[in-house]
Amino acid sequence: MGADYPGPLVSIEWLEANIKSSDVKVIEVDYDPATAYFIGHIPGALLIDWKRDLNKYPERDIIDPGGFERLMSRLGVENGDHVILYGDYNNWFAAFAYWVFKMYGHQRVSLLDGGRSKWIALGKPMSRPTSKEPPRAERESSYRVITVDSRYRVFFLDVLRKLHDPNTVLVDVRSPEEYRGDITAPPEYPEEQAQRGGHIPGALNIPWKQAVRDDGSFKSPEELRSLYEARGVTPDKEVIVYCRIGERASHTWFVLKELLGYPNVAVYDGSWSEWGNMVRAPVKKGDEP
């Protein structure tokens, strides 16, 4: 029997009560499955390897609609299934996957509040795979992308044209050290540096981490609304969020779009790894936007 769709965010308690529903598909999304999924995962969860499965090669891009269809078919996901996403690195890459699911028109998708770390902290059961091979569903699906919603994504030239638009607000969700230009790569990926440090001129620094509690779960809508509106990030503006490669930006996109209902929010997933390496792209250093 199928479970009712509760919205974009589900609790661990909800998942425990509904995990055996026929239309619920739990998927772990990892940047590094070797240190996460293949050590242990939520029982029954399938895997999306962010680098391998959500990126298109050899060019830098997300997978196209055909690639998404093939991925969903391999995982046995049907168009009407309720997909629950969670993962490593603070749910960043699960949020990125959620953003991709929404762009490709999948309606019933949710993030697990608190993700992998909270599940483990609460002592919930984990399964350890017996093989290092990418898991496949017992039966492939015939998934089809019905629509592509391009409103959720912007590119370098889009951002460049909006730099002085009073109706647009840019939000840099990286750490203050990255924003100021003190470091050119986050501590999580110290080897992946940009040519230049700093931020896009005019961008506000509101780190992704300010939206969550110590256990990784999201703060209340009232707390979140106060956080962003106090900095001038309001629903009447076009909001563009960025980080380094789009994963932390997707986390903030989820907050603004899905939890607070802002109507016009987009991810610049080229982010600092593109902007900080682009010849003649304007860069500002320091604490001021």
Automatic annotation (TrEMBL):
PROSITE patterns in the record: RHODANESE_1, RHODANESE_2, RHODANESE_3
Gene3D superfamilies per record: Rhodanese-like domain
Residue intervals of the Rhodanese domain: 20-128, 164-284
Alphabetical list of SUPFAM superfamilies matching this protein: Rhodanese/Cell cycle control phosphatase
GO molecular function terms noted in the UniProt entry: thiosulfate-cyanide sulfurtransferase activity
Keyword entries, A-Z: Repeat, Transferase
Superkingdom field: Archaea
The protein, known as: Sulfurtransferase
Lineage: Archaea, Thermoproteota, Thermoprotei, Desulfurococcales, Desulfurococcaceae
